[in-house]
Design brief:
Layout lengths: L1 H5 L1 H12 L3 E3 L38 E6 L4 H14 L3 E8 L2 E9 L20 H15 L26 H5 L20 H10 L17 H13 L3 H12 L36 H8 L1
Antiparallel strand pairs: 1-2, 2-4, 3-4
Helix pairs in contact: 4-7
Length: 295
Amino acid sequence: LEAAARDPELLGELVQFVEAGVAHHVAPPTPLEPPDRFVNKDGHAPQDVMRRPGRATMWSVDAAISGYCEPRFAAVRDAFVANFAERGEVGAAVSIIVAGEVVVDLVGGWQDESCSTPWQADTLVNFYSVGKALGATLVLQLVDRGVLSLDTRVAEFWPEFADGGKETVTVRQALSHQAAVPAIRALLTDNDLWQWDTMTAALAATPAWWPVGTRHAYHTNSYGHLVGEIVRRVTGEMPGDRIAHLRAERGLDVWFGVPLEEQHRCAEVIWAPRGALAPSVFDGLEGDLLMSALA
């Protein structure tokens, strides 16, 4: 910047560089003390006020923005920058492809809550329910290869799953959130989430929440183990291993189970403080209320 101040030509190039969305920098962080309800420039209070975890404040995050943005999509770049300057975004990336061409590819901010590690183009992000589509893809690959059909009953290769009125559940129903197990009835620990056999056994032991074929409900936290165990039972491989094959074939940077040597690239998940739920909170809940609470 000092050199650009002394060289008008260099300054002009820098301005073009920024306007093209190749680089941008948000002003240094300024904590703002908002009232109970933040009012925007139109005089309306938005439903949610972005707050830093544990603080009743809004923040402007000091965040370098880099990447590429076609001039016609400058509004996307501006909105991306505003997330840091006005809404407390810590780190993020956005990529847009139109007609097979990348028109926006921006990264910015930090991949950790302490704002010490810059967000990079190869930063890995927990993408939550996007994983459902990948798990379904692994199953559909097996269908495409004739290894099983959409109308194959899950219990044919996962006998334990037949318990509790689920013996007629098909692969088609499992893929389309009709398997009647959107929640596991057993109360499990956080550590249980990392134990594949514990989770799939608990899922198989859960009685159907409704007569199979009569309803559907989003299988929020059970879908991965449901379709993943279908893959494991049919192929003998864990879903993460099958994803590794897909990653190698397609040159993808996607993982089910990130190895230790790659975890330095992972963005932190910043949780709002919340105490553990006591089992007693489920007392007295029945039917759909209990199902929704456990899901």
